[in-house]
Amino acid sequence: MKKLFIIALFFGLFSCKNNAQSVKKDKTPNILLIVVDDQGYADFEPFKNHDPVITNPNMTKLANSGMIFTEAYTTAPVCSPSRVGMLTGKNQIRWDKNASWGPGLPDSVKTIAEYLKEAGYATARIGKNDLGKNFHKYDVREYPLKHGYDEFLGFSAHAHDYWLLSQEIKDRTPDPDGTSAVLGPLMHNNGVKSYKDGYLTDILTDEAIQYIQKSKNKPFFLTLAYNSVHHLIHEVPQKYLDKYHVKPIPNYDPDSLMAFEKHPVGSYSAYYDKYSRLGAIQDEDLRKYYLANLNCLDDNIGRVLESIKKEGLEKETLIIFLSDNGGTPLNGANNSPLTAGKYSLWEGGIRVPMAISWPGKIAAGQVQNSYVSATDILPTIASAVGIKLTDKTLDGINLLQPVKDRVLVWKWQKTWAIRKADWKLTNTNEDHWKSRPSNLYIKPIRDDFSLKLFNLEDDPGERIDLSSQNPEKVKELEQAYQNWCTTNIGNY
Q1: Ordered domains of the chain (ranges, CATH)
Q2: Is the pTM here over 0.85, yes or no?
C-alpha cells in the first residue's frame, strides 16, 4: 500500500498541471503503447496461473519491471470497438448505440494521439488500425493521420497476411481487400510501402525500432499494434514451426485452386476462411501454431525493449501492454480459468493480459488485483505527461488509482453486462461461430439470454449463477445498467 500511495502521489502531482502546448524532454516520458491481438488470458506468463506450456520471457521482463493487472477489461469482445475504447478513454457505445462491429470515430471524440500531439509530442502508429469503419481509406476520420498521428505504417482492416506484402501479389489477387484480412503493401502515410520479402511481425518491429532511433531527441508517442496472434495463425517463420513441431502450410497463391464453398476459385477469402477455422487444422496442431506465433511475437517485443535500452531511454519511457480482447476459441488460445472467449461478454472475451512499466517511477514487481479498464489508458498517460483533462464524459480513470466499486458496462450487439465491485450481471450467450471452438474452450454454464449473476471474486470462471439467491442484487445491477445507458448513450 505504501508503494501505491507514493505512485499515486507522483501521478497526482502531474495531474495538477495545465494542458501544455509544448513539453520538455527532461520532464515528460516517451509513451509506448503495445497492443497485441487475441492473446489468451492463460497465455501470459506473468500471471500466476498461466498455462505451463507458455514461455514469453520478454512480456514477463516488461511486466516484472512494473505492474501487472489481473483484472483488466477491454470495452468490447472484438477488435474494432475495443480499440476505439482504448484510444479515446470512452466506452464506444456512447455513440454506437447498436454496439456493432463498426463504431467508427466521431469528429467530436478526442484521441490519446490528439492530446499528446497538442502537448508537443511526435506521434506514430505502426501496425493494425481498426476502428470498424472506412477500411483502406486515407481521407477519413478513422485513418491515423486524421486523428492525431503524424506518421502511420500498417493496415486499416481486421487483419493482414503475415507474408504477402508486395504490390505484385496484390495485383494478382482477385479480392485483395475482400475479406476480414487483406494482403499486399502496407499503407504508409498518404501512400503505400511494398515489401517483396519479410514477415509482418518482424517488419513492424523493424519499423518501430527505426522510429524510436530517429525520434529519441523529442518526446514521442508510439502505438505499436501487432496483428499477432490473430489469424492466419499458421503463418509463422520456419524456425518457430520447427520448435513446435508443425509443418508449414503453403501461402496463398492466386493461381492455386483454393476454392471454398461460396467463394470464387483463386480468392483470398477462400484461403482465409479455410485456415481461420478448425477443419483444415485440427486442435493439437492449432495450439502449436498459436504457440509458435506467440513465441515470435514475444521475441519481437524483446527486440523493441532492447532498442529502448540501447538508446538509453528505459527510464524515460512509459510502456503499456495489453491485448485488444480475449483469446478467440478459433485460433488455439487458452483463456483458462475464464469462460468462453472473443465474441462474447463472458470473462474470456473481455478480460485480458495487461501490464505497465516506467522504471524509476513505477515500482517493479507489483500485482494489481483491482479491476481496471482499457479506457483508463488515456487518463493514465495524461496524468504522467501533465495534461489536465476537462472532458466529463471520459469513462477512464488513472490505472494506478483504481476504484474498488466503480461501475463498468458492456454492450455487444444483443448482449450486455455490468460489473460493480465483485458482482457481474449479464445476459450474454454464445452464437457467433463459423466452426466449433477448440478443445481449450471453456463452455458457458448456459447458452441463452437469461440474466446471470456472478461473484467474480469467488468465481472468476463464472460457473455458479447466483441470480436466484440474490434477486435484489440482480435488480440493483440491472437498474444501474439501464441508468448508465439512459444517461450516456446518444450524446454524439
Answers
A1: 2-402 (3.40.720.10)
A2: yes
